[in-house]
Amino acid sequence: MNGKARGSQNMPEFKEVRRASLLPDRIAADILSKINDGELAPGDSLPTEHSLADTFGVSRNVVREAIARLRADGVIESRQGRGAVVKPLSERETFRVDINALDKSGNFADLFELRGLLEIEAAGLAAERRSEIDLAEMRAALAQMEGHRDFDEKRLEADAAFHRALGNATGNSYLSVIVGYISSRLKETTRATAQLYSEQNLVSVTIEEHREVLSAVQAGDADKARAAMAAHIRGASERLHVPMKDPEDG
Known about the structure:
By secondary structure, the protein is mainly alpha-helical. It folds into two domains: 8-91, Winged helix-like DNA-binding domain superfamily/Winged helix DNA-binding domain (Arc Repressor Mutant, subunit A, Orthogonal Bundle); 99-249, Four Helix Bundle (Hemerythrin (Met), subunit A). The protein is built from ten helices and two strands. It has helices at residues 24-36, 49-56, 60-72, 107-129, 132-146, 153-169, 173-191, 194-199, 202-219, 222-239; strands at residues 76-79, 83-86. A hairpin with a 3-residue loop joins strand 1 (76-79) and strand 2. The protein starts with 23 loop residues before the first helix and ends in an 11-residue tail after the last helix.
C-alpha cells in the first residue's frame, strides 16, 4: 500500500458478531489478526469506528476501547485526517501484555508485581500533583462504580477509568499511559471472577478500597495514598488468587 486508505471493495472482512457482550479484547484480536495476515498492511487506515461498530454489533465506545488497546500496544497510530493507521512492524513498541499468555506460569504474578511497583508510586505522585479536574474524574469514576453494584461491564469500565484518572493525576505522561494500559488489560481477568465477586459481596470491599485511595489523594497525603493503593493491590491479588511479592518488601 502507498499509505492511502483502501477502498471499501478491498477492505478485509471482519467477523460480524451481534452480541452486546462482545469484549473489546476480541475486537482488537480480530483486527490484529487481519494486520498479521497482511489483509491490513502498514499505512492502511482502519475502517471507521461507526463501520466497525456496525460490523461487530457493538457500541462505538466498545470499538473505541478496542482501538485504544491496539494503539497502546503500538500496533496503530492516529493521523490527522486518516484516523487509525497501521504502523510498520519496525516502529511498533515492544511492550505489550498478551491476555492469552497470562495463564502461563508466573506471568499473572509478574503483572501484578509490575502493577504494584507502578501504581503505588503513582498514587503518591497523584496525591502531590493532582488537579481539581483529576479529582473530579476520580470522583466521577467512583460514583459510577457505586452506582453499579452488579459486576457488569459498566462497573468494570468505571474501575478502569478510576485508575486511568489516577495515572493522569501523576502529571507524568509515560506513567499515565502505562497505568491506563495495565488497568485495561486487567479488566479481562477481573471479568472472569464476576460470579465470585457477586457471591461474596466483594464489590463493596473493592469500592471501599478505591474510596480510601481517593480520600488520601484528595487530602494530598502521599504516604497514605501509597499505603491505600498497596492495600488495594494486595486485596485484588488475593481475590484473584494471585501469589505476589509485596512491592513494599523490596
